[in-house]
Amino acid sequence: MLDLRPGCEHCDRNLPPDREGAWICTFECTWCTSCAATLAHVCPNCGGDLQPRPRRPSGLLPTYPATTERVHKPRPDLIQPASSGPGPGSSAPYRDGVAVHGIDGFEYEPVVVGQTAYRPGRAGSGPPVLLLHGFPQTHHCWRLVAPRLTGQSTVVVCDLKGYGESRSAPGGPLGEGYAKREMASELVEVMARLGFDRFSVVGHDRGGRVAYRMALDHPQVVRRLAVLNVIPTVDQFERMTPETALDYLPFFLLAQPPEVSERVVGASAAYLARHFLTAWAAHPDAAAPDAVEHYVDAFTPEAITRICAEYRAAFHLDRPLDAADRAAGRRIECPVLVHWGAEEGGMSNEPLDIWRRWADDVEGSPLDSGHFIPEEAPEALGTSLRGFLG
Which of 17, 111, 165, 281 could form a cystine bridge with 4, CB 3.0-4.6 A? Predict the structure, then answer.
């Protein structure tokens, strides 16, 4: 009986035993469709042909379970660019075996900065604006908002370093490599490679933290700043109370020492991703089912390692950097727009008061939403951004 290994040997993409999309040789070396195509359907380990792996019906899995032992041996010679989908008739692009789910009408291109391979997409015309997503999502969260902005702006979408398609090296023990200062600097370079030396930036959740750090560190670059569902990291930690602390579980769960967070989160990755996507929304079905599945598929072991590094950096590196900037009186020079969810338990009118301690020109309001404003209130957010971005 076949073992039905749970992941691609190269990219570690999840390959459930009851779904199509896995290719195997006679020794059960297992590859996702994208990696198998790059290998020309020849196993590099034994030289045998790769064939589609049979699917085991879910009803038989309790009696005949698949193995849970992962074989993950990335091959340096198998780093492929984005390609077309997993098979004939598919329109979904793939990269290293992970579905891209590009936004319709956006053109994507690879941009490598340091050790990070980005694949930003852009559409529209007018002053440029960069849209950054949060946890546990990818730039796919902007699919309902970005098209509303392309009539007046050149819109750029990009996965954060370590998330989704933006593949990079692991972080250091304190999250080195994933501090918001480093992440912001890399994205400034990405925008420069695309031809934009000055632009606005809109960030949701973790993307908001990258966005405001970008405005602080690169005032000559950021024209306007919009932050969604966040306050500065140092204020976030200082203002946690017994009443709100449970809402911020990832701040501590994902910031534990290396291997601890990865093992705990990885053991229930799909469950945790779905939990956050439903628990933080005003309504559990706020995100479309196909969007939820995209975010779950993108929550790979590789991504989890990088995301944990990003949360470690928030605690060990971003928090003290914010505190130092605050003590030194550093301020955001550009206009700032702030929105948060009216149904978001951990937020109130307080975000405006906090942001006004960091910038002179601040406006904003709650929107009829939970935590995921781009998907819960896309029309209201799009209208607000069009007015703000001008």
Answer: 17
Element (H, E) at 291: helix 289-298
Domain ranges of the chain: 1-93, 100-389
371 as an active site residue: the answer is yes
In terms of DSSP bridges, do strands 94-95 and 98-99 run parallel, antiparallel, or are they unpaired? Answer: antiparallel
Query: Ramachandran region of residue 13, left (φ > 0), alpha (ψ -120 to 50) or beta?
Result: beta
Which residue is listed with tokens 């501090």? 179
| Calpha distance 232→213 (Å, rounded) | 9
Tell how strand 336-341 and strand 222-228 pair up: parallel
Q: Where are the beta strands (DSSP E) in 188-256?
A: 199-204, 222-228
pLDDT digits (tens, 9 = 90+) for 26-43: 999 999 876 776 776 789
Interacting residues of 76 by C-beta distance below 8 A, sequence separation 6+: none
pLDDT in tens, 190-233: 999 999 999 999 999 999 999 999 999 999 999 999 999 999 99
Query: Which residue of the set 205, 297, 318, 325 is catalytic?
Result: 205
Residues 103/301, Cβ–Cβ less than 8 Å: no
Q: Which of 10, 133, 204, 371 is catalytic?
A: 371
Q: How far apart are CA 205 and CA 341, in angstroms?
A: 12
Classify 200 as helix, strand or coil. strand
